Amino acid sequence: MYELTVKGEFAASHSLRDYEGKCKNLHGHTWHVDVVVAGEKLNKTGMLVDFKEIKGALNTLLEELDHAHLNDLVYFQAVNPTSENIAKYFFDSLKTELKTVVLQRVTVWESEKANAAYYEKTK
Hints:
This protein is α+β, with helices and mostly antiparallel strands. A hairpin with a 2-residue loop joins strand 3 (102-111) and strand 4 (114-118). It contains three helices and four strands. It has a single domain (2-118), classed as 6-pyruvoyl tetrahydropterin synthase/QueD (Tetrahydropterin Synthase, Chain A), CATH 3.30.479. The relative contact order is 0.22. Helix content is 28%, strand content 33%. The chain has a four-stranded antiparallel β-sheet, with helices on one face. The longest helix is centred in the middle third of the chain and has 15 residues, at 51-65. It starts with a strand and ends in a 5-residue tail after the last strand.
């Protein structure tokens, strides 16, 4: 099995609903995002997939979120903009874009010491 990781980042603000603590107030982070894909077979060039394909899909999402107030986005009006839900947002969005590989996991870091990951169980 082969595995590739692509990293990106975006800066955005949010406030957590139904939370008793400082994070209920408006604040921001520079989130770092790790996208991990996997597959068993390499193409004729010897690649699982061109990094450019993964980066392109990731960068589209990063641009949408960069310097946004996450609570104002339609997706995060329905779900609280926690790191867990941000990771799932990236996973669900990328899963529809990346057709030639299996999306293994998306990890969202809100600081260098705290992250949340989302993945789907394999059968």
